[in-house]
Amino acid sequence: MRGRRMITGANPGEPVIRTAIFDLDGTLLDSTPDIAHAVNRVFARHGLDRTEPSLIAEMVGNGAQRLVGDLLIRQRIPAAPSDIDYLTAAYLEAYAEEPLREGRLYPHVAEDLARLQALGWRLGVCTNKPQALTLSILEATGLGSYFLAVRGADSVPARKPDPGHLLAVLEDLGGGTALYVGDTEVDEATAQAAGVAFRGVAWAAPGRLSVPEAARLSRIADLAASSVA
Ligand SMILES: O=C(O)COP(=O)(O)O
Questions:
Q1: Ligand 1 pocket, residue 128 CB under 6 Å
Q2: What stretch(es) of the chain map to CATH 3.40.50.1000?
Q3: What's the sign of the alpha-carbon dihedral 52, 25, 138, 154?
Q4: One-character DSSP codes across 125-176
Q5: Superfamily of domain 32-97, CATH level 4
Q6: InterPro entries annotated for this entry (predicted)?
Q7: Closest by alpha carbon to 141, among 173, 97, 101?
Q8: In what helix (H) or strand (E) does residue 59 lie, and over which residues does it extend?
């Protein structure tokens, strides 16, 4: 064991899990204000409607392209794939200018990741954000050093809910048994398809998870206490 403290499973003989992979938006970081700011800025430039951040929070999780496409559908704007490509590129460019404007880590995230790391956990990120933006945000929030593997949507052949996305992060971490921690149905479906145990966070937006509230993590550090699948 690499950690200073021995973690034992609930029942003797059950495997002890010390690998955790995290979703980013809505799980580690409340990025809704920054996503909303960037996408609304670009939409306004093209005479399109503004969308309330609270509604955007319900739509994030399937990547930038899908968010832009879904916002256009909501506004009943017929758009060719090339229009969606163009607006997505403009949105991501605007976002990259201010990767951390008003976005904030959820309470205790940094200290809890530090605790898991100190206990010898291998930690990774599996997000549908683009890789470069993900790395900028991890650096800006000071979380970068906790993760041994990070994969954004454009660093794999197919993004979440394709199980290959999560499994690529797990392979980067050396394989074995892991937990995936997320806040949306996309994360839940990805974990299920990959055969990885899932933990939902207590601060997920209403209606996005089927995991009962009582079974959700109220703190990330709670993973250390329930590390058996
Ligand atoms: O959809 C996105 O842009 C990112 O979402 P995720 O970090 O929850 O995967």
A1: yes
A2: 19-30+103-225
A3: negative
A4: EE-SS-HHHHHHHHHHHT-GGG-SEEE-GGGSSS-TTSHHHHHHHHHHTT-S
A5: Putative phosphatase; domain 2 (1.10.150.240)
A6: HAD-like_hydrolase_sf, HAD-like_sf, HAD-SF_hydro_IA, HAD_2, HAD_sf, PGP-like_dom2
A7: 101
A8: helix 53-59
Structure tokens at 82: 């090339």
One-letter amino acid at 145 equals S
| Sheet-wide strand order for 122-126 | 149-151, 122-126, 19-22, 179-182, 197-200
> Ligand 1: does its nearest atom lie under 6 Å from the Cβ of 60?
yes
- Enter the CATH code of domain 19-30+103-225: 3.40.50.1000
23 is catalytic: yes
Tens-place pLDDT, residues 90-125: 999 999 999 999 999 999 999 999 999 999 999 999
Structure tokens at 192: 């299920």
> Which part of the chain is CATH 1.10.150.240?
32-97
Provide the total of helices (H) and of strands (E) in the chain, helices listed first.
8, 7
Ligand 1 atom nearest to CA at 27: 8
pTM as predicted: 0.91
| Residue range 156-189, pLDDT digits in tens | 999 999 999 999 999 999 999 999 999 999 999 9
User: 23, 25, 34, 183: which one is catalytic?
Assistant: 23
* Cβ of 165 less than 6 Å from ligand 1: no
User: Tokens standing for 133?
Assistant: 């933006």
Contacts of 98 (CB under 8 A, 6+ apart): 34, 37, 38
Separation CA 175–CA 122 (nearest Å): 10
